[in-house]
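Notebook, bench 3.
Goal today: get a predicted structure for Alkaline phosphatase from Coemansia pectinata so we can plan the truncation constructs. The sequence was checked against the plasmid map this morning, with no discrepancies at the termini. Length recorded as 540 residues. Pasting the sequence as submitted so the record is complete.
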Amino acid sequence: MKVSVLSVLSLVIASACAAPQPGVEDTAASSPKCSKSLARKRNLIMMVSDGFGTASETMARNYVQQMEGKPYEWLSALDELLVGTSRTKSSDSLVTDSAAGATVFSCAKKSYNGAIGVTPNEKPCGTVLEAAKLKGYTTALVSTARITHATPAAFASHVVHRDMEGLIAQQLVGNNTIGNKVDLLLGGGSCNFLPNTTKGSCRTDDLDVWALAKKNGYSTFESRAAFDALKPKTKLPTIGLFTSSHMSYEIDRNPALEPSLAEMTVKALEILSENTKHSNQGFFIMIEGARIDMAGHDNDPAAHLRDIVQYWETVAAVRRFVNNNRDTAMIGTSDHETGGLSLGMEHDYLWHPKYLKPVKKSSEVICRELSKVAVNERDNFVRKTVIPSYLGVSNVTDADVASVLRAAASGSTKCKLAVGLIVSRLAHISWSTDGHSAVDVGLYAYGRGTEKLRGNYENTQVGEFLRDYLQVDLAPVTKRLSNQLTEQPGFEWAREPPSIVTQRNVDKHSSGSAAAAAAYHAKLDSYHPLHYQGGHSHSH
């Protein structure tokens, strides 16, 4: 058998360009041998653990160590990929929401809380997903939230307020100035795709977005069976939504009805890999562990924990994919922290992971069940079922029962907080808020091209990394979006006044001219962008 010199050289180059080993600087990636290959084709996986702070990582790690007997030095799938931290403020508040938190990743620009793919002046900004699609990449969004929810929406739609999910749904399936831009969508939220004349719809109009999607070339499905039947060679574009609203918390998920985040991710990567096999461009996918955040809002430690562990499984699956696909990089972070979680409370130097283990249901499901129980039967239901069976608490106190009953009478939000508090108090977990906090969040990365991501970064720099890794220009995309409809007809909305120094109010903090104001703002928000090609580390 004859082997040509060219074949031998190809094997040598392929070996030199192989996926880097963890913790080893990837010098091959910048070599002339590899630059041509990298310039031709690459894949980028963006992972967003919504509402996930470093205390949450500690909580989950401690739980696994205690419950499974792991050694002190044991690392989670995320711990192994930690490279730094990311700051989280939006353009108008030190405490961001998920809309602004995702827009800064997708557009590499800060915006106001509530903004979806628009700038502080409410104009559309081109996203990395849109620019990638226009350059020939195959694109995907995967989330355990409604697919029209803030994080996935910010990568492929443009509205002035995050709650305009009806308009977001239309834009996601190609009813926009660019056309079809997301090749694969997996998640929840079918209610925004159904006309308001249909049972289960949450739209305010009679538009059938499922029909619109099919008209624009999408194949659609809504069942676990259809998901399982998907093959790597599945024709794109495709959209699969498994629930009317958000997908279930992992603690509540019925695997016969809903795939896990890890399962959706593995399936998506198989499809994207196969569909780009003969393409000159790779793919871009955003994967969101959305319900970590929602459990934080509910101050529900057990649901929070289970979704974190499921996110770990997803990260491990992504890492395996990167190991087997050398032109792929993964970057992961959170848009913000939720709940102000703290491990330990009052003056006791204690926290007890064991109280999270017997919990069988989320506070969301518990309170939904409780709302359907007759008022005169609720005491018995809470005393005999909720606390001892669902929460696994053997010592049922009158005070706990009374607290849940009072909260349930005031509505779902207070009920969920009261149920979560029972477990949190026993475990010595405390929460400072049922909203978001301003703390920095973890930054995680793996694969060729991520070596420069070390240290503390402004969240704008995360968006800049996505842009530079994909080698796309967002300005032409922004120009194409100049006539994009960004307000949902009949939707009333208003912006909160800014609580920090911003472009809009900077003149109040400067000594006169507009030029002085602009200079002040430029100094305030100088982020030292990091560039993928020949990049430099940021200044501290």
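The CA atoms of residues 105 and 419 lie 34 Å apart. The first strand starts at residue 43 and ends at 49.
Flagging this for group meeting.
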